[in-house]
Amino acid sequence: MFKRIKPLVLASVLSIGVGSASPMLMAAPAVSENVQKEVSADQAFPFLSKFLAVPVSERDEMTVAYLLKIKNGSARDGSIVLKHNGQSQKLSILGDGRISPLPTLSQLRGGARIVVSGPKDMSVAMKVRIYATETPAKTMPAAPLIKAVDQTSRVLKKIAGALYALTPKPDRLYFVGAGNGRVTLADGSVKILPKTAVADAYPAGTPYFVPADYQGAVSFTFDAAPSRIGIDDRAK
Q1: How do strand 217-222 and strand 181-185 relate by DSSP bridges?
Q2: Is 204 helix (H, G, I), strand (E, B) or coil?
Q3: Cα(98)–Cα(94) distance, rounded to whole angstroms?
Q4: What is the 3-state secondary structure (H, E, C) of 125-145?
Q5: DSSP character for 205?
Q6: Of 34, 40, 140, 161, which has the maximum CB count within 10 A?
Q7: 4, 163 in Cβ contact below 8 A?
Q8: Looking at residue 97, what is its pLDDT?
Q9: How many whole angstroms separate alpha carbon 190 and alpha carbon 177?
Q10: In 10 A of CB 135, how many CB atoms?
């Protein structure tokens, strides 16, 4: 969800495509048959080195993920390999598209390279997500998650610098797969969390929480433990 960054389009030329700073997927040209292309890891994972350079104590409640969207193929059809200091490591593409593991700061600074290969007609695009690091559960305290939103704003401000003033601000949490959500306030009252109206960056019906709208939030309860907790801006 980094705004006004240049996300990598992993395609036949592995070029940097100019995109909006939203989680919108970039269109990508087809990968030629048996093509193998290489780019620096720092280019492949934009802004990751800056994120990892932030002290852990300032980002312990949030993390970043880099996700791939594959068209005309699947994760089994291509490969992403990290090369560093004469060694090669195949990176996994998880079920939700996340690349794992991500390069470390020392690898990014040490000239690591990313090698991508894929068959004819397959196109791949990358997007960035920010997640809370708290373990999802049916009942969760509010304080760590509110802290995660605050940390995200501070970290993105450090990374983006002057551009941060021009971008939408991450001010809410999305509880993916949680069903109905409720927040309990300090006075004991319980409020029903609103839900996203349409499927976009998050599935339709995802409950979300804006800290500024619920002063004195103490805890959350959900029908089911969220599969992940996204930190983002406006409701999608």
Answers
A1: antiparallel
A2: coil
A3: 5
A4: EEEEEEEECCCCCCEEECHHH
A5: T
A6: 140
A7: yes
A8: 86
A9: 20
A10: 9
Classified as helix, coil or strand, 27 is: coil
CB of 98 closer than 8 Å to CB of 65: yes
Are the CB atoms for 156 and 217 separated by under 8 Å? no
SS3 for 46-77 is: CCHHHHHHCCHHHCCCEEEEEEEEEECCCHHH
pLDDT in tens, 8-39: 322 222 222 223 332 223 334 444 466 788 89
**In Å, how far are 12, 29, 32, 64, 114 from 117, measured between CA atoms?**
9, 14, 9, 24, 10
pTM of the shown model: 0.81
d(CA 58, CA 136): 21
Instruction: For residue 176, give the H/E element and its range.
Output: strand 172-176
pLDDT tens-digit series, residues 36-90: 888 999 999 989 999 999 999 999 999 999 998 877 777 777 789 999 999 999 9
Residue matched to tokens 């907790």: 229
CA atoms within 13 A on the CB side of 105: 8
**Cα 149 → chain centroid:** 14
**Which of 186, 175, 187, 152 minimizes the C-alpha distance to 221?**
175
Residue labelled with tokens 């690349």: 99
Distance of CA 14 to the CA centre of its chain: 20
Nearest Cα to Cα of residue 202 among 229, 176, 227:
176
